[in-house]
Amino acid sequence: MRILLVASAFNSLTQRVHAELRARDHHVGVELALGDEPLRAGVAAFDPEVIVAPMLTTAIPKDIWSARTVLIVHPGPVGDRGPSSLDWAIHEGEREWGVTVLQAVEEFDAGPVWACVPFALAACGKSDLYRNEVADAAVLAVLIALDRFACGRFEPEPPDYLRPDVGGRLRPYHDQRYRRIDWAADETAVVLRKLRAADSQPGVLDELYGREFYLHGGHDEDRLRGSPGTIVATRDGAICLATVDGAVWVPQLRPRRTACGPPTFKRPATDALGSALPASVPEVPVTPAEAAIRNTWSELRYREEGAVGYLEFSFPGGALSTRQCRALLAAYRQACARPIDVLVLGSGRDIFCTGIHLNVIEAADDPAVESWLNITAMNDVVEAILTTTDKLVISALAGNAAAGGVMLALAADEVWCRESVVFNPHYRLMGLHGSEYWTYLLPRRVGATEAERLTREALPVGAAAATALGLADRVVPGDAETFWDATRREAARLACSAELVHRLVAKKQRRATDESAKPLRAYRDGELARMRRDFAPDRPYHALRRDFVCKVPPAATPPHLLG
């Protein structure tokens, strides 16, 4: 079918739906909801059989939905209505939730129901939940709805919000009145729900050292204690705030924007506080191995199961700053020094990696200098993985990867991913040539022709398509827990298999052959020469980065999305 996706942004869910529909041979276009007239023109130009809105914050004009079937994805069960569905669900500690596909009508979330898929609410932040359980349920619901639309015989039923078994209600926007933390009274579980319900937007407004900030992210702490509402420790850019019965970690802060001030954006919490953070607040480090056995926050965790090592990393939003790249490199080298045969890299359940940290770069005194430091630090991590010849390295993707994060994954010997993962193996939308040895890694995987197409088209690639292309080697269906169960079984099998020695010998030989044909240093130098030009003050990268970080919407739907 000709399917037009209408969305307020080409976000992770819209990308996932786009990739899933293309994998099923539908002709898919995207039109961003940037105003009624552009939307009308886009719909007329594409002339879809059906419109799907995976993520929409504004109403679709009546003349569109009255003339065509428009399917709206609502992140709540049948009967739930309002703009803050997930926020309320997390805030109120719901255990079961759902995604409903409704037909657009005059009233929000009140149209006939085409499909509804339930899911269990995991104890995590809203953005993590959105990219995992919500996205999985939303894709299934969209596919069911489209199958029903295609058959031509399905009659969607208007939801009966008065039925007690449905329990429908229209809830208000979940503003800061509901999010405010009462540090003197709220227990840790309540604080965590409030923080997680606001992650990653809009955050929880609070005051620290006389300044107002939005708190982003919320994680347990098992040992530290202090006066409720005070910062008792820092760790790797995060702050630890005491509660009445414990403490929570907050990795990022966003200053509250003043009436006439510039847009603000999320930064590592200690960076945002700057000199306001007292020197008396201690930095309390934790090793990756210790973090793996404690209930505390850490960007890095390391554990071993027999001859298999697992280096888990979890960076907010998936981006790696210069500091984070160096920390990851140090942890990787420590893991490689251990007596293991297989090393598995990945995040527990969310984003694998998205490349360099544009927010940290934007906040730097000299963004061009910080860009250079960040990309070279990222290259160092990729090079270390590429040159590891005495261990089999597996990239295990429970979540999405983009730009340099894709190349980080491809540096390993094998790439295993959940069936829900979306790859974005390109840089050009940020005005960059790209580095992380992509000119070596991508053609090695998919061939020169496909590498050129992927980087030029700049469209998301789903897990099935990635496997067909050669970007991934193994796809595992199911949720993150199922994925990691399968990963552990297969990694353990490889570690004790007779084929391991032969694979390591072949790996070392191939690296030597490739090095003699063209040294890794040549790939790196060539890429960085282009990147140095891209980082020059007059290049588009700086404006594109600023718009991305400050969430400035485009003036029109980018041409590569139009289908």
UniProtKB/TrEMBL annotation:
Pfam annotation, one family: Formyl_trans_N
Domain (Formyl transferase C-terminal) ranges: 179-256
Domain Formyl transferase N-terminal: 36-115
Residues in coiled coil: none
Record-linked CDD domains: crotonase-like, FMT_C_HypX, FMT_core_HypX_N
Superkingdom, taxonomy of origin: Bacteria
PANTHER family hit by this protein: HYDROGENASE MATURATION FACTOR HOXX
Annotated protein name in UniProt: Hydrogenase maturation protein
Organism: Nocardia xishanensis
Lineage per the UniProt record: Bacteria, Bacillati, Actinomycetota, Actinomycetes, Mycobacteriales
